[in-house]
Amino acid sequence: MENITNWFTYVNDNFEYILEETINHARIVLIVIALATVTSVLLGVLIQRRPVARAVVLALSGIVLTIPSLALFALFIPVVGIGNPPAMLALYLYALMPVLRNTVTGLDSVSPAVVESAKGMGMSSTQQLLRVRLPLAWPVIMAGVRISSLMTVGIAAIAILVGGDGLGSYIQGGLTRFGLPNSENSVWAGVVFTVLLGLVLDIAFAIFQRFSTPRGLRA
Amino acid sequence: MTTEQQSPGQQAREPKIRLDKVGKTYPGTKVAAVEELSLDIHEGEILVLVGPSGCGKSTTLRLINRMIEPSGGRILLDGEDVTKVNPDKLRRRIGYVIQQIGLFPHQTIAQNIETVPRMLGWDKQKAKARSEELLGMVGLDPERYRDSYPKALSGGQAQRVGVARALGADPDIMLMDEPFGAIDPITRERLQNEFLRLQGELRKTIVFVTHDIDEAIKMGDKIAILGERSTIRQIDTPERILAYPVDDFVDDFIGTGSTIKGLNFLKVSSLALTDYPTLEPGGTAEAGRAALQDTGREWLVQLDENRTPVRWIHADGLDSADHERGEPVGDLLHSQDTLFHALELMVQSASGETCVVDDAGAFVGVVRMADLAKAIRRAQYEARMHYEQMERQS
Asked: If we measure between CA atoms, which residue out of B20, B28, B29 comes closest to residue B70?
C-alpha cells in the first residue's frame, strides 16, 4: 500500500516528463501505423488476386514478426543511424503484417456477386476498387490496424535501446539503476503509461472504425 | 440443327443485337466453351436462352456485354461492332441482372439505383428523380425504401431493386442471368408477372437465361434451346417449339406435358365452337324437345334473361319441375381465355363440355374435348409445315 502511494507521488512529481515521453511514444506509434497502413493496403490490393505474390508476401510479413525486436532495431543502425529512425523502421516492418493480412482477408470477403454487378454496370477496375471493394473490406482492414497499433505500442518501448524516444526510457532508466531510489517506480511508470496509451489508442481507433464504416455495413 | 427463322417483315429490320460467329475457347483448352454462335435478337423482344446446366448459356450471355471476352466473332448492337470498344462504356449501355443480385451493401437503395446514371454524369437531381421513378415502377414505395440499406430487404424486394438498378440509365438492352432463380416460387411468379407487365410498357430488348423450361415458355417471345457448347438446337416462339420440337434433344428437354403447355398459347377464339340447342327462360318442354330434334342432340343449354347459360338439361329431364332439372353449367369460358384454362374447366365439369360466352355474358357455343384435340393437331401441323417450308427454302 505504501509502495502504491509512493508510486503515485513519483508520477505526480514527474508528470510533465512522463506525459512528454507518452506523447513522443504516441507520435512514434501513430506515424508508424499511418505509414504501415498505407503500405499494407496498397500491397494487399496488389497481391490479393495474385496467388504466388500473395503467398510470398504474406509469408515474408509473418517471418518479420519472428525476428527478435532488439536485433531488428539494431540491424538498422548502420543504415539510418541511431535515434528514432531505426526504431520506427523496425516498428513499421512489424506493423505491416496484421494490416496486410486483414486487407487481403477483407478483400477476399467481398461477395463475388457484388464485384460482378459492379463490373457489369461498367465500373472500371479502379472504380470497383475504390467504390466497392475497399469500402466493403474496410471494417476488416481497421481491425488489422487496431492489432498493429496495440502491438506497436508495446514494442516501441524498446526504441530507447537504439537511442529513440518514448516511455521505454522510464523502463530502461529504472532497470539500469535497479535498487536505487525510485528505480522501481520508474519502471512501473513506463509500464503503466505504455498500457494506458495502448488502451487510449485502441479506443480512439475503435471510434474511428465505427464512424469510417459505411452505415449499411454497421451491425 | 440450327434453325433461325423470321417473317419477311423482320428480315428487313436490323437486329438490335447480332452475334456473328461469336465463340469462346479458354486458353489451354481444346474444346470450346461456346462454339461459333450466330444469333439475331430484335428490338423489344425477350429471347430466352435455356438449356441443361453446363451448356454454356450463362457464358453466352456474358459474352454479349463482354464480361467474358469472346475469343472470336463479332457482337453488333444496332449494327455497330462493339467487339473492340471500351468494355466499361459498353456495359453502361446494357442493363445486367444476375441471380445473386449483388446490391452494394454499403450504399442506400437509391444510391445503388443511381450508380450508372451518376457514372454517366447525370446531375444529382435528375438521378434522384430517376431512382424514385424506378422504385415506383418495380413496386417499392420510394418514401420507405429510398434511404434504407440492402440488408433491410427480402430476397424478392432485393431483386426488384436489382431490376430497377439495371434499368437505371434506361438502357435499350437488358441481360438477365436467372434473375428469379433464387426466389421462392410464389414470389418468383409474382416477379415474373410484374416484369412482363413492365416489359409491355418499356419494350426493352432482353436476353434472359434460365434452366427452367416453364420460365422460358412464360417469359420468352422467342426461346433458344441450347445444347452442349451453347449450340442452338432450336430457336423459335414458345408455341412452335412446344408444337414441333425439332429433335429428341429438344423433345426431352421440354419434357412431358409439352402439348398441354402449348394450350397456353391457343385462345378459345381460335376454335370452331360446337353449336348446341338452347332453351329460353320459361321455355316449355315441347319447345326443348323441338330444339333437340332439329339438332339430333341429347342435351340442351338452359339460358337466363341475359342469354347466359345456367343449366345443362337432358332430353329425359325436360318434363321435371323447372328449377331442379338438369345440371349447373359451371364456370364459363370467354373467347380470350386460353385453351389451357378451357381444359381445366372441362376436366372439372361432369360432361367434359364447357359453355363459351361473349363479353356481355351471352351464350355463343360449347367447347368439347375433341375441339381441343383438333386445335392441338392443327398447331402441330402448322408448325411442321412451317419447318418443312423453311427446309425447302434453304
From this structure: B20
